[in-house]
Task: structure prediction
Amino acid sequence: MLSDVINYDLFKSRTNKAGNIFALNTLLVKASMAIGAGGAFAVLDAFHYHAGKANTGSGETGLLICYILIPSALHLRSAAAGWGLSAGRESLGDRAAAAGKRRRPGRMTTAGP
Result:
């Protein structure tokens, strides 16, 4: 998918910025991993979770929140954004239905023997 972004940028700007786009992508991946880990540690600390030690129910609850609830909420939000379920936006299903109603010209083929 990143290559599609690069090709589109090359088409629009007529300059090859592939190195810059890949570098920005790598930076964003590393930054999101750092923020995610820091956020998880903050949640675990708020629930008094201690690694390598016996934990109470609240520590285990914090662990469940970090492993199940937060990732599930983020995945559901991503799915909603991907399917266009945000308020005021046309859904992907509506776009697909509209595209199916349009007539598309057939492909040109060579006549067989």
